[in-house]
Amino acid sequence: MKSIKNVLMLFMAIGLASCSNESDEGKIQLRIQGLHSSANSGKSMTITGKENENVIFTDFKISIRDVVFKNDDDPNSNLDTDEIQFRGPYQIDLLDGSDALTQTIGTALVPDGLYKELRFKFHKDEDLPATEDLYDKSIYIEGTINGTPFVFWHDTSENLDVGRNTGVQVVDGLVNFTVTFDIDQFLSSFNVIDLSLATDDNQDGLIEIFPNDEDGNQDIADSLKENIKATADIIDN
Predict the structure, then answer these.
(1) Residues 96/102/106/108 CA torsion (nearest 10 deg)
(2) Within the chain, which residues score under 50 in pLDDT?
(3) Which domain of life does this protein belong to (predicted)?
């Protein structure tokens, strides 16, 4: 009889522990969002600044994987961890002509706490069809410069840490966690870039801006990649 009582108490303890653990967890819904001042105006994505007044962005896409969140309330939480909440890879479209886009990655169960930082990795996905814009690329932009079409891409494979001083508080329920990229700042956030200086050296009618392009724009490609990283921010909404 005593042994049965002990077994029942053990099951009750396990049940209480389980309930306690559940109450100490919340959910983060991760979204990636493109921002620009012309959103929903019906106008094309025109970059401000005199030297770039005739630069228009029409497409912006990224490929990422391995998203990790840091819980400031947990001393054991850090970004160098195997505790990956979103494995991926994910191909994310953030601009379609005049429309800035938002894409929901998914929802992850995380311990309650204050989340001030996340890390993800830019990922060039070789498993996509070769016809896809992001095949073997991690960042991709299309547009025009003074009416001439251009394409920018980069195959960088590196971590990006995105932080916010006030953080996002997760307590039990669902919290939206949104990483934004401010497209208006792509030519000024870290490096000041005059995209009108990009050249079409092979005279094929397309200005190519990427690490091994034949148009002589490799330095612009690296500067633009750094600018895109610098515009990343976190909001909760």
Answers:
(1) 150
(2) 7-8, 10-11, 14, 16-21, 39-43
(3) Bacteria
> Cα(189)–Cα(141) distance, rounded to whole angstroms?
17
Phi then psi dihedrals of residue 211, to 5 deg: -60, -30
pLDDT in the model for residue 94: 97
Q: What is the pLDDT of residues 110-141, one digit of tens each?
A: 999 999 999 999 999 999 999 999 999 999 99
Contact 52, 196 (CB under 8 A): yes
Nearest of 136, 139, 149, 124 to residue 57 by alpha carbon: 149
Cα–Cα distances in angstroms (integers) from residue 209 to residues 4, 14, 54, 123, in the given order: 74, 59, 17, 19
Which distant-in-sequence residues (6+ apart) come within 8 Å of 5 by Cβ? Answer: none
- Beta strand 113-122 with 159-170 is antiparallel
Q: How far apart are the first and last CA of the chain?
A: 55
Please state the φ and ψ torsions of residue 223, each to the nearest 5 degrees.
-65, -40
143-169 burial, b if ≥16 CB within 10 A, otherwise e?
bbbeeeebbbbbbbeeebebebeebbe
Q: In what order do the strands lie in the sheet with 102-111?
A: 102-111, 25-35, 174-182, 232-235
Q: What is the DSSP letter of 86?
A: B
> pLDDT at position 3, please?
52
pLDDT for the residue 16: 46
Q: What pTM does this model have? A: 0.85
